[in-house]
Amino acid sequence: MQSGEMADNRAIVRSSRRLTIGLVLAGVLVAGCQPGQQGGERPPVADDLRTVNVYEIAQALGLKVTDITSTHFTLKNPANIVMIFTYPGGHAYVNATSIGEVGDVAVVDGSTRLPGSLIGRIRNAMEAYRETPVPTPTASGRVVIDAGHGGKDPGAPAANGYDEKTINLQVAQKLRSILNSRGVYVVMTRDGDTFVELEERADVANRMGADLFVSLHADTASDRSVRGYTIYVADAAPWSTVKMAEAIENAMGAAGLSSRGVRRANYKVLVRTQGPAVLIEMGFISNSREASLLTDGAFQNRLAQAIADGICACLK
Ligand SMILES: [Zn+2]
């Protein structure tokens, strides 16, 4: 690990005001924990003391995160475009009109924290928009989710110190519960930090005649600037499998990472699986930004949601 990476992991405090806020917040928390204190509930933490990540903002305002870069976030719904610039002094814009400076931005454990008051400020500037409820896509089918690596095989190291095997399993478990809630029957090739041979992973799908085998991995490259997700199918995969891979590739765009497209490669799990099989490289964990996202629980949920949307589209 190089010293440059260490800096990414540390809380980067960009303003001394943040320290003051931190002390005030610590004061509130300490006060709230004192034994013997009577007289009702702890006062709620005010919006300007609370910090939120971009997904919490999106969820609170009914927006989708459509772009994540090192300088800004873009969030959208059909009536509004919100841009939040995260460098010191950066402004937030709602439909191209500034709503003022974003305020204190801190990177904590690789996750960008923004002032909670942004939610109210953005809401005030947004055009009224009532979302027509879109039915959650449901599907029936039998899917094998294969969390890549495990046990003695850690997979690739992430720029922030995590192992690929851990990220793969965390997303796999989230994906399973989303698919289950939508009516899809899921079998996991592993559900813990265990080593499973590649042949056995494919055979799980072959034995049950799965409608789809989905292997989850995270990519790595010596060039740390390489980013984006890739969907692989075997060289000999039929067109119907390519169409499934394209549906997943398309749906994954909603999570905010860029696509490197559907590609062919003879990974063992893809070649040995008799039914449709895809391998998803969810992003590059050699890239510090994507490593931060892929180890962030909120982003993992968002990604699992997008992959589930794609799988449900495949099973239709
Ligand atoms: Zn892998």
List strands and helices in order, with pairings.
Blueprint: H1 3-9, E1 12-13, H2 16-33, E2 51-52, H3 54-61, E3 64-68, E4 72-77, E5 80-85, E6 91-94, E7 97-101, E8 106-108, E9 111-115, H4 117-125, E10 141-147, H5 164-181, E11 184-188, H6 198-208, E12 212-219, E13 229-233, H7 239-252, E14 259-264, H8 268-272, E15 277-284, H9 288-294, H10 297-315
Parallel strand pairs: 10-11, 10-12, 12-15, 13-14
Antiparallel strand pairs: 1-8, 2-9, 3-4, 4-5, 5-6, 6-7, 8-9, 13-15
Helix pairs in contact: 5-10, 7-10
The structure holds zinc ion.
Zinc ion is lined by residues 148-149, 155, 164, 217.
Report the order of strands and helices.
HEHEHEEEEEEEHEHEHEEHEHEHH
Distance between the termini: 45 Å
Average per-residue pLDDT, rounded, comes to: 86
- Please describe the biggest sheet, giving its number of strands, its sense, and whether it closes into a barrel: 6 strands, mixed
CATH topology of the largest domain: Aminopeptidase
Structural class: alpha/beta
How much of the sequence lies in strands comes to 15-25%
Spans of 5+ residues with little confidence (pLDDT < 50)? 1-41
Number of strands: 15
The first-level CATH class of the largest domain is given as Alpha Beta
The portion of residues assigned to helices is 25-40%
Number of helices: 10
CATH superfamily of the largest domain: Zn-dependent exopeptidases
Bound molecules: zinc ion
Domain tally? 2
Strand order of the largest sheet: 11-10-12-15-13-14
Give the overall silhouette: globular
